[in-house]
Amino acid sequence: MKENSTRRRPTSWKLISSSSLKLPTQKCFTIRLKNYVQSIRNNFNYRGIDMNHSLRHFFVCTTRVFAVVVLTVLLPLLVLGQGGVGSSRGLPSTSGGIHTIQGKVYFPGAETNKRVRIRLDSSNFISLSAQTDDDGAFRFNRLEAGPYTITVDGGSAYETAVENVSIDREASNGGRVLTVPIFLKPKPDPSLPPAAVEAYRKAQQADREGNIKKAIDQFNAALLIHPNFTLALGDLGSLYMKSKDMAKAAETFTTLVKIAPADVIAQLNLGIALFNLKNITEAEVHLREAVKLNEKLAPAHYYLGLVMVNLRSYPDAEKELELAISNGADNLALAHKYLGGVYMASKKNQQAADELEKYLKLDTKPPDAERIKKTINDLRSQQ
């Protein structure tokens, strides 16, 4: 990899108002429906959609279980494709658990159709090893609750990737499915200045140790030596996102996409950072570029769905949320909630009810559970 290389602004919506329950049944349903659809836009400030979370936070979402990983180093959380190490081909599994860890390995740029070796380590069992399918998908079944380490061997061309996830023992009643996207990074170009690479390695080590401030300083030091160091730019931008400094993240990823416009993860992260900054128009541009580079990138479709909701373009929101779910976000509760709201806007009442039920199944204790249940009952009554 060469290193030198007039829409209305949405108004906020309220969650389904309990006060509407005092109205006659038919009118109550109409008002609750209207509030629900309007509220999709406002839900950016609802539990995790304030966009101050990394991508990863969104895709490792299970009932009360979040494996927090971050976008390029990680972060990303997604996993797109069901049927990783293959359904009918026999999935790696242990003998006493009821949980699943699945995911997808993404390569830099638009590279696809590559297989890599995945290792799953835990104190509960001897290491499991498997190979991804041609789409990069993997899956480990019948796992017990507890901490796990996922290691992807990058070989000679890519950095080895390590992600730590955990299935909470106290929140693990019933089977959980953790979806973990893993983004591989190329190894540094051997022609890079040694001092820049040394600072980069120090930044990586500081990040692994949880010292984000030191890591940011070291990445910046590497960039002072070599401003077009794309790996350092990508990791620095991800750390800014992790630190919730979306302005600096956007600035960093803007620099990166100018150098490497075909970097799908840079385009995705820039879109997410701009979305956090409520720069919806520019966010859409970069999210669409990410989809152009990888049409199966679930996080990009998910955020495009939120952008379309924000712009009140509900048919487009429906399309993008459906694509997100079909490409790996099926276990993301909020994707089903938003899609349910969009279906309601299109008067697809039974489909809306189905999606809201999936939302409650995936997130069994949301603060709006009772209101959602009442809405589902109203939707089911509308034949």
Instruction: Give the total of beta strands.
Output: 9
Give the name of the CATH superfamily of the largest domain: Immunoglobulins
> Which percent range fits the helix content?
40-55%
What is the CATH class of the largest domain? Mainly Beta
Major sheet characteristics: 4 strands, antiparallel
Overall mean pLDDT score?
77
Which segments are poorly predicted (pLDDT under 50) over 5 or more consecutive residues? 1-38, 40-90
User: Gap between N and C termini, in Å?
Assistant: 57 Å
The CATH topology of the largest domain corresponds to Immunoglobulin-like
CATH architecture of the largest domain: Sandwich
Question: What's the structural blueprint in terms of helices and strands?
Answer:
Blueprint: H1 25-42, H2 55-59, E1 61-62, E2 65-66, E3 99-106, E4 117-122, E5 125-131, E6 137-143, E7 146-152, E8 161-167, E9 177-183, H3 194-208, H4 212-225, H5 230-242, H6 246-259, H7 264-276, H8 280-293, H9 298-310, H10 314-329, H11 333-345, H12 349-362, H13 369-381
Parallel strand pairs: 3-9
Antiparallel strand pairs: 1-2, 3-6, 4-5, 4-7, 7-8
Helix pairs in contact: 1-11, 3-4, 4-5, 5-6, 5-7, 6-7, 7-8, 7-9, 8-9, 9-10, 10-11, 11-12, 12-13
